[in-house]
Amino acid sequence: MPTRSRGRSIALALAAALLLLIAYASTFAISYGDWFRSADTLLAADVARLAPARITQLEHARDVEQIRAVIADARARGLKVSIAGSRHSQGGHTYSAGGLRLNMRSFNRILAIDTVARTITVQSGATWDEVQRAIAPHGLAIKVMQSSNIFTVGGTLSANAHGRDLDVTQVVEVVQRFNLLLADGRVIDVGRTTHPELFSLVIGGYGLYGIILDVTLRLAPDELYEQHAAVMDYRDFPRYFAEQVQGDSGIVLMLARPSIDPDSAEFLREIVVATWRRALPGRTGSYALTEEANVLRDRFFLGLSRRFDWAKSLRWSLQKKIELGAGQQRLVSRNNAMRPPLVPIELLTYTSRRNTDIIQEYYVPVEHFVAFMDRFRDILRSGRVNVMSSTVRYVSPNATPQLAYAPSRPAFAIIQMSNVGLSADAQAHARDVTRRLVDAALEYGGTYYLTYQLYPTAQQLHRAYPNARRAFERKRFYDPDELFTSQFYEAYGRTP
Q: 152 with 212: CB under 8 angstroms?
């Protein structure tokens, strides 16, 4: 009897230990704190939660007259207005303390699709997922879009986002025109020849000049692509890109991922380069829009890698073998090349009271890529940055936006996601490392993306964007009362 009782006790202890292990493991995939956190609609923040601020009023856009009335009421009450979409910028671009936030997500109707001219006219609160669902049945696809399709069309224009297309890289290149609601309540139709200055200010202007109401965009055929991948040393990448990617007219999209294995000598040295080329005639594949799968599994591995370097090594191995399909060939439609599971969304959802995931992006002329990557790696290592992922894309020059991040020279965009603490000391450290990274980009003739944190100094911003002073001056010309504002504008552009 004592032996049986002892055996039962051991079994119960093992079961309890197993349950505790399962509960602990689940915390890498599930944010249990969200279950007990009540939503405060007047506490505004973006996805990074770096600088939350209490706003006075939250409004959801419904129609043009309602939006106009909201703006008029805010002006009469002396409230500043910030414009929000999916809120994935990370520098307070969508809110200001004590102000009014106008959420555009419900302003999302598809207004017109022209299958002959291959254009779509859509309200600015529509997401790219909603656009894809509208155009896919017509055999059409998006020409330029950032990695994920959760962002709003208006937000993408406001940030002048870029994608993986090699022919047309920045969204400014596919915008035909848009309606803009100014601070005085007027609605004007803005295009390259009608109000060209506003066209250059609003695209990449982060909502400071007015409210984008609807947009007409150029589309592309929803073609079938063959996905290939090759592994190489980062020093070979520029030549490979010039000869094997740009030199091949059949290749349409490109994305490269440097190693995130911190324990390996290959950290940010080994690169997997994925390309998508037009499939040969006769190849068949599915054009049905894909959805995200295995979210909890993938969140578990991502969560592990936030805490353990060995998990980063494992993730990198999986990225090479599974995610990017190194050594394999895959068929995918153009729309699905810009959708989950190829570009996951739910996987990246993460909330913690202690830390957060941030994204940063640096644009470096193609000829300086190798030298910048050496400096980039040294700064990240010496700064003990918890790097979660890294990506490289190509950006062709375009000087149309006043705040152009690649105005004159072809560049590689080096994007990194890292996990940083939310404490004052951790944020001070992240700010210091970021400023060193910005200085490195500037030294090599590059810039950084204004969509993210407010870590860079005003001096760094004006070095990277020499037109910024004029852009802010013209903001006050079109909006003399500075009705439209944000933490970003208050940090860098507000009237002294």
A: no
